[in-house]
Specification:
By secondary structure, this protein is mainly α. The chain has 5 helices and no strands. The longest helix has 22 residues.
Length: 73
Amino acid sequence: MMMSVQYLINNNPYLKKYLRENSFYYKNLLRHPEFIYQLNDLMRISYKLTLPDKLDRIKDNIHMLNTFMDVLK
């Protein structure tokens, strides 16, 4: 495996965990090192680290806080 790919994997704990859970992607990385970028996108979708997911979590937290404040009134 290319050193740059190993470096990217080792510096991203989520990506490292995702690869350990889905080890069949190692074969693709060995054959096509550029697959690391697609793999990173797959990991972000799987672990809900995309911007829409983060915004949804913020919206839910605001809604929960609003509900809590209404109960206290």
